[in-house]
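Record filed below.
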Amino acid sequence: MANLPTTETIVKTAATYGRDLLERVISTFLQAFIGGIVVTTPLDGSMWHAAAAGGVGATIALVKGLVARWRDVTNSASLAKGV
């Protein structure tokens, strides 16, 4: 018989991964948004451009986290091995 993980282990693993990915996406959005404001303010750009830049950065972070999950079954959204 195969040594499969319990349902509880799978749920905990998915929850850990989900929290990790959500944290990375939110922090990437905030970093890109703040960076966008710093750039758009002196260039007389709109705050919507800064928000769009933050959204693009967060979307890329989300895709990277999903690719990391598909590439290697881990609890992390990191591409680094062993994280």
Remarks:
- The chain has a mean pLDDT of 76.
- The CA atoms of residues 65 and 77 lie 4 Å apart.
